[in-house]
Amino acid sequence: MTTTTENSVDSLKVLCGTWNVGAFQPKKKVEEGETLDLSGWIKVPDVDFIPEVVVLGFQELLKPTQGVQKPRTLVQMENSNKFIDITLYDNWIPHIQANLKKIFPNETYTIEVVHRYFGLGIIVFKRSHSNVETQVLHSATSPESSLDNHSSLSYEIKSISIGSVGTGALGFIGNKGAVAVGLELDIGLREPLKPCFIATHLHAFPGLNNFVERNEQVNYILDTLILSKIEKLESDKVVSVNNGKEDWKWIFSRQLSKDLYSKVQDYDFTFIMGDMNYRLLQKKGERHHSQVTNFVEQNKYDDLLVYDELRHIRSQKSFREVKKNPEENLNQPQDVISRDINIQQPVQNVNQTSELLFNEQFINNDFKKSWELVNTLMDNNPKKLYNPFLGFSESQIRFPPTYKYKTTSKAPFIDYDYKTYGKPVFSNKRIPAYTDRILFRVQHPKLDYDNIQYWQTYNKSVIKVKRYGTDRRLLLSDHKPVSASFVIDWKLLRKYNDKFPPVETSRGIILELPEDPEVNKKEGENETDPLISSSDNTDFTINPIYIASMKIQRWIKKCKTLIVNVIICTCLLCYLYLFQYN
């Protein structure tokens, strides 16, 4: 087989997944000895795709009352010095490990991180390497299917950092917020490769006020999230853990050193995944619900995504502007068309902007009114529609909405009937929406995020999405899980430290950032130099006073809102009491 960029040692393969499990706890619901079939979620696109890192994010691991009682339960892993969250570990690790073994029968994945904060959780698995060439069995194939030899760098983990931030009740409780993991991977150069993974759960409910609150939460998370390093120390003896051998242990570092703390902007690239709760710009009612389901039944996902809040806020364009200049659609780069397990027929390409799919055809005036409300808010207070996802890209969505579905309390919690599997059964309580998403961003101080065409294309040149899909079969939650397979060309990322290369869009248009005459490459610099030097990182220095002030401001704001609501409710109750008494 010819070696491609995706299969060379210049690329890192990553599998990311997110799922709001609706407080489902397998330890209590699944019979002992049984295993949940998660192969549709932990799914790879090709037979030769062996992820080096598997990162799975969870939301609503516990009921709200349980989460408050046990925000964290850290214990020492058996036969190891790693510290893990036992609640997350006991419920999900056995099922994930069984599925990984089924999908990759000749591979061993060791547990690196099991981190939970209230109902939020994140698990990181790392592929173990040996001197023997290994083989991978695709999750959608049978044991008799073709196998492929594959070898790559070991990508040894040099350090791990973890962090969490709450944005829920009173502005800081962890029923909403984010958990994060930052890695340093050895790629054979002086500077390690540093990916950051964020699992988030944002404010719920439809409506413009809730829409604005979600945007503020994302901005707050990215600005205040601090990751603390867990140091790697050599152990006295080799310890066998998870069918693999390790000669080191992890401990939580207590040293006050600037090298032990990092922000999201300190990493080479970031993946943010989770139940972001962005809705479709629809009104409540059975008629609107049926309109959405009709789109889904006809596989008209592009038409449906016209009304997606997240696409709208990330477009940096109002609907009015695009409608005035529809010819701009022809000059914008196309999103990557990813394979989805549920799509049988190829879908035709559609014209779109760099971030937002637009369709000039509307079914009725109610859809137009939704956009007019958003644009009115934009005109009145543009700051409220600030794009918190600036620099982040997302692959083309070729699957139905992931929320809100009917659930079942009967095992095996999976619908194996293809007829039902092909027709999503939505709950009538909410308008279906794409609440569960995975976004990615290459980070560099010199990358101009104002040039939306360039960074969008550069993101997708460095990070290629091989699959972005969902698994409709799982019925244990009102959310469907979402996963994405990424191939990261870190060689390209390392090659251009100061000057970014010209990139070509899918339409053959060459995009190039203007040269900065003041920025000259220093003599003797090469690809082994760090991507982000200390001089370039001054803007992202951790300022405890600034972060503390932001948290205090958010807490005061939420307290003011709570006090006003309490006063209003008290006055209303007093009025009703006096009125009834009289």
From TrEMBL:
One of its GO terms (biological process) is phosphatidylinositol dephosphorylation. Keywords: Membrane, Transmembrane, Transmembrane helix. The keyword Hydrolase does not apply. One of its GO terms (molecular function) is phosphatidylinositol-4,5-bisphosphate 5-phosphatase activity. This is DNase I-like protein. InterPro entries: Endo/exonu/phosph_ase_sf, IP5, IPPc. It comes from the Eukaryota. Residues 10-494 form the Inositol polyphosphate-related phosphatase domain. PANTHER family: INOSITOL 5-PHOSPHATASE (PTHR11200), TYPE II INOSITOL 1,4,5-TRISPHOSPHATE 5-PHOSPHATASE (PTHR11200:SF300). The chain crosses the membrane at residues 562-579.
